[in-house]
Fold this sequence. Notes:
alpha+beta, Elongation Factor Tu (Ef-tu), domain 3, 3 domains, four-stranded antiparallel beta sheet, 4 helices
Amino acid sequence: MTxxxxxxxxxxxxxIPSSQPLLPSPPNEENRFSFEQAQVAQPKGIFSxxxxxxxxxxxxxxxxxGVIPRLISxxxxxxxxxxxxxxxxxxxxxxxxxxxxxxxxxxxxxxLAATGTVVAADLLPILAKASGLQIQQVLVDEGDRxxxxxxxxxxxxxxxxxxxxxxEADLQAAKARVTQQEAALAQTKxxxxxAEANLERYENLSSQGAVSQQEFDTRATTxxxxxxxxxxxxxNISSALADVRSQEARIQQLRTxxxxxxxxxxxxxxxxxxxxxxxxxxxxxxxxxxxxxxxLLELDLNVAETLLPGIxxxxxxxxxxxxxxxxxxxxxxQEIAPLIDPQTREATVTVxxxxxxxxxxxxxxxxxxxxxxxxxxxxxxAAVLPQSDGQAIVYRLGPDDQxxxxxxxxxELLDGYRSDSTGSDTAAIEIRQGLQVGDRVVVEGASxxxxxxxxxVVAN
Length: 460
């Protein structure tokens, strides 16, 4: 390989050509690794599947930020006889400028992946209490938040108003009949009093022999008839009064229905379904709306019975969505169903969900259930370089600022990681084997290195 000549100044200011290469020499075939290989490598194990995508994104982003400017600023090949000044990062010792992070001991959750469907924890059907009325207005739509007592729909009140007017007229007629029956009762009682007085007089006369027995019997029959007439008149009054009470009850019922012509929300929540349509006639058995009480949603997960022993009520659950990558929520296991489906050999695990405008009943979500929390070693994910053979390496920094390529065994990828050594938030990855607590690894600039290179550590 032809080396570019880089001039440097002596103490007296004279430019002296140097044969130092602009970039580090390529690694030998046994330990060859470059940024391009990291991009096209097809790693195995922890880098496969969805986890591999996260790691690839994290590593690709960190590497891309450092590499692209250097690729753009790399000078074109010059004539061998013409000295070229490299546009490399200035360093104090001539080595590649890098940033480092320390391998740290942290709590690492062990998780179980599952999928499930969002359901309403408490779904309230809202029915019209007044039947046979036409829907006049619908004031809410699906997704609207409602508060207790809020008007959801109004019904046509004209029919009820007409019925109330008719019932009030019937009430007045019933009261008039009561008055008539009371007058009839008074007349009947007067006749009864007269008949009883005549009977008493004729009884005295009959004992003296002044009147015949036939005349006495006639007076007795008249008095008995008057008694029966009074009983009938009193019954008529009772019937008329009952009719009055019936009409009053009917009016009260109609007025209650008139108040029910306004459909209101019984509790706070969100409208899940709007079934009411203007012009429809209400029925006591058909819901107009369904409301999710207090916006309480749950996630029902189907988990194989062999995995149930690792799940505990109250365990933390991380929620995500393939359809909406921005959806990242935290929930907790609320209930583990006591019964297992004999066909699928699965049980339902219910997870409580936080109040979020992103959630809707029926959504299909991913869930990572925390089954245990262990102590593990972590480094920033950007420090890990995937290899073409499926393995991964990091560059460990020695005391003499020399780096050593170290093969590592990877574990869990962690989001929301804050490094104590760098003080920055980034993705981290568990190192199961290959490093020890306190080891320093190269983060930025690792893609330019090979085993044994000297580096210049700069501040993060």
